[in-house]
Amino acid sequence: MMKKLFFTALLAALTLQVNAQVEAPKDAPQLEFALQLKVTLGQAFSIENTQHGRRTVIPITGGTFEGPGIKGTIVNGGADYQLANAQGRTELEAIYCIKTDDGVYIHVRNRGIIANSKDANGNQSFYFRCAPTFEAPADSKYGWLNNSLFLCAPSFSQGFNGIVLNVWKVK
């Protein structure tokens, strides 16, 4: 009888929690523009029908970047590794290095999602966002890149043969 009473009370408490409305906190994180990367790309190739989906590799051949207090070039030799499934979702991981104008190398690992799907109303939707991480020398003026979270909104620009990555620091 005691067990039954306990489980009835637990079920009632869980039901109240599910039905309770949560108000969004007023202190939501803010974004601060960090930098824009203009990445040039090589010829992509794919490995079809792997056990995980279609694997596509896009070589990163160079480019430039600039933001408040940071500027330089993208080092040739990285790549964007993408894994697409049949439902229109692609996971990506781009791994490459950048070099600042004052000669400091910084490693970049940018993970993201591309999703072609339908919204709640059944309309076609496209989602493409990433979260880059940086590895800069801790004792350099770029050490701040190591200790922050970043969000990226990729885009394509007419007249530029590559991808443009706008990066914001989460404050």
Mean pLDDT, to the nearest integer, reads 89
Order of helices and strands: HEEEEEEEEEE
Shape: globular
**N→C terminal distance:** 53 Å
Structural class: mainly beta
User: In total, how many beta strands?
Assistant: 10
Which strand-content bin applies to the residues? over 45%
Overall radius of gyration? 22 Å
Low-confidence stretches: none
Please give the largest β-sheet.
10 strands, antiparallel
Q: Please give the share of residues in helix.
A: 10-25%
H/I helix tally: 1
List key phrases describing it.
ten-stranded antiparallel sheet; 1 helix; globular; 11% helix; mainly beta; 171 residues
List the helices and strands and how they pair.
Elements: H1 2-19, E1 31-41, E2 45-50, E3 53-67, E4 70-74, E5 78-84, E6 89-100, E7 105-118, E8 124-135, E9 150-155, E10 162-170
Explain what you see.
By secondary structure, this protein is mainly beta. 11% of the residues lie in helices and 57% in strands. It has one helix and ten strands. The chain has one helix spanning 2-19; strands at 31-41, 45-50, 53-67, 70-74, 78-84, 89-100, 105-118, 124-135, 150-155, 162-170. Strands 1, 2, 3, 4, 5, 6, 7, 8, 9 and 10 form a ten-stranded antiparallel sheet that branches. A hairpin with a 6-residue loop joins strand 9 and strand 10. The longest helix has 18 residues, at 2-19. The mean pLDDT is 89.
